[in-house]
Design goal:
Blueprint: E1 32-33, H1 35-38, H2 45-49, H3 55-71, H4 82-97, H5 105-108, H6 116-121, H7 124-133, H8 142-146, H9 152-167, E2 169-170, E3 174-183, E4 192-193, E5 201-210, E6 216-221, H10 234-242, E7 252-255, H11 262-270, E8 274-277, E9 300-306, E10 309-315
Parallel strand pairs: 3-7, 7-8
Antiparallel strand pairs: 1-2, 3-5, 4-5, 5-6, 9-10
């Protein structure tokens, strides 16, 4: 069968070894914490926190924040410390615990109807100053780095964080790739408006997660066009980059129709991984003979084979979709 793009020929007959799982697709590595991360099991919460937000990352943020406060000559500024930055992060966590995103700082620190734990954790004015001055990179080299990457102000810290996400956990055999909108309405060169999302405005993040535990294994920000150049084959690039450290592991990746194409499936097979994804009927990978409208009351399904690739087509009546 010839595809709509005229490039591929599918067969209804599977290859001889199609039903036999390959040796590299059998995951023998135990799922869960790595040996290093498992050492903190049973210890304090802050010890587990430091597995991901390391002391080195905190020191970088402290130094960059102090440098920014000196640059703008903030009145009455006293250099922050590692201890105080942990307190600042703790206050941010508290705001999440109390679902305070729609409350102003003045309300949270109010002596009349505020939440007492905020004022006892940190002075309001100090929190405001830290929030305004916090930085994650060296300003002197930022413009040079930003020319190549819009995410430059956060890139170093983000890479350190994702490295820890990958090194602290052994993923299961089944993983998923999808997008998440981190709601945000401030200034950002790659802020997006997605009307179908609950938050609508924010930064889009590509994420690779474990299907069994929902653990975030790897992530990558969407920064839009770089120097006006369109990112052709974006879905394929994102999946391959997010799973690059899993080459040869035999993992199975699942994603939606934005990512699905035959080139991605082949590329993952070349890396000893497999793929499952939904696909739109207007994609070129669908055989011509199966693109005709169906009016039967029953669900029609086909299994179409091409070497080690498999295409499963399922047609539903519009009333059932």
């Amino acid at each position: 069968m010839i595809l709509k793009n005229g490039e591929e020929i599918w067969s209804k007959l599977p290859s001889v070894n199609a039903a036999q799982p390959r040796a590299h697709n059998i995951i023998r590595q135990p799922t869960g914490l790595t040996r290093f991360a498992a050492q903190v099991r049973g210890q304090s919460v802050d010890t587990a926190f430091k597995l991901f937000i390391t002391p080195e990352m905190i020191r970088i943020i402290v130094n960059c924040t102090n440098a920014e406060a000196r640059r703008i000559r903030l009145e009455g500024w006293v250099d922050t410390t590692v201890k105080e930055l942990y307190e600042f992060i703790g206050v941010l966590f508290l705001a999440g615990v109390f679902h305070s995103k729609n409350q102003s700082i003045k309300e949270l620190w109010s002596k009349l109807d505020g939440i007492p734990i905020f004022s006892t954790s940190m002075q309001r004015d100090r929190f405001v100053n830290l929030r305004g001055c916090i930085r994650f990179d060296e300003r002197e080299t930022r413009n040079q780095r930003r020319f190549k990457d819009k995410f430059a102000p956060l890139k170093n810290i983000m890479e350190m964080f994702t490295t820890k996400c990958k090194s602290n956990y052994n993923p299961s055999a089944y993983l998923s790739v999808d997008e998440q909108l981190v709601t945000f309405r401030g200034r950002c060169p790659f802020k997006m408006f997605l009307p179908t999302k609950p938050g609508k405005y924010g930064m889009k993040i590509w994420i690779l997660c474990d299907d069994e535990t929902s653990y975030c294994i790897n992530l990558q920000p969407y920064i839009g066009r770089v120097n006006g150049v369109r990112d052709v084959g974006q879905g394929t690039r994102v999946v391959l980059e997010l799973t690059d450290h899993l080459n040869g592991s035999g993992r199975h990746i699942t994603a939606d129709n934005f990512f699905t194409n035959i080139h991605l499936a082949r590329a993952l097979l070349g890396r000893k991984m497999t793929y499952t994804g939904t696909i739109k009927k207007n994609k070129g990978e669908i055989p011509k003979s199966y693109c005709q409208p169906y009016i039967d009351q029953f669900i029609l399904a086909f299994l179409v084979f091409k070497m080690t690739l498999l295409l499963f087509l399922r047609y539903l009546r519009k009333t059932k979709q």
